[in-house]
Amino acid sequence: MTHRLIISLVTWNSSHYLEQLFVSLRKQTEQNLELLVTDNASTDDTVIRLSELLPTLPYPTTLFREKENTGFARAHNHHIREAIRRKARFVLVVNPDCILEEHACSIVLNAITRDDHLGSVGGKILRAGFTTTDGLTTLVKLSTIDSTGLVMTRSRMWQERGYGESDHGQYREGPVLGVSGAFVLYRLRALVDVSIRQEGHREFFD
Fold first, then answer.
1. What pLDDT is attached to residue 205?
2. Measuring CA to CA, how many Å separate 35 from each of 62, 79, 175, 181, 198?
3. Rounded to whole angstroms, how far apart are CA atoms 186 and 86?
4. Would you put residue 133 in left (φ > 0), alpha (ψ -120 to 50) or beta?
5. How wide is the angle at C-alpha 147 spanned by C-alphas 73 and 109, nearest 5°?
């Protein structure tokens, strides 16, 4: 079976985020999914938590373990090559500290399939804060925007649109110059068309 959408997750000492991420992955209304995870040589109990959480998902999963931290870009590139090998059409890059709304996968997938000219689609990313109850620390959604896409300023600097603003629904669906790598859906055909052999970037704007 060819899955329409492969989710790409890269972890490194991410144990304390995984429970809430996986709860949100289980709640996705889009179920034609597959999850690829690479752990970049975590030194905490991330791999143990992954071994516990991966079987709870209602779709196929694969875990890759690196002996050293190979970086954000290289690990996701591995997943992209694997998704192409598996004849998937789309790959969704998700950070381990994300909590997805239940329709998140469906919304971005519907958006990109409506327009064959789209190479990527992102979502509105809100900041999260920490709260501790009975010794358990969890992430809670705030009303502050982290990103609604990348734009270029007059000084030709990339900037996260809406960064730090209170969310009042002021940013609607529409074109942007780029999207945040924390949550971005790529059309695999588009990535093949523009691919370069550069994996030196380890963090932002890879």
1. 43
2. 6, 10, 27, 17, 24
3. 15
4. beta
5. 70
Cβ(133)–Cβ(47) under 8 Å? Answer: no
Label the pairing between strands 150-152 and 90-94: unpaired
Distances (CA, A) of 206 to 154, 174, 203: 23, 23, 6
59 in Cβ contact with 35 (< 8 Å) = yes
pLDDT digit string (tens) for 140-158?
A: 889 999 999 999 989 999 9
- Write the CB contacts of 54 (distance below 8 Å, at least 6 apart in sequence): 35, 37, 61, 63
**Interatomic CA distance for residues 7 and 90, integer angstroms:** 9
Q: Give the global pTM.
A: 0.89
> What is the spatial distance between Cα 53 and Cα 179, in angstroms, rounded to a whole number?
28
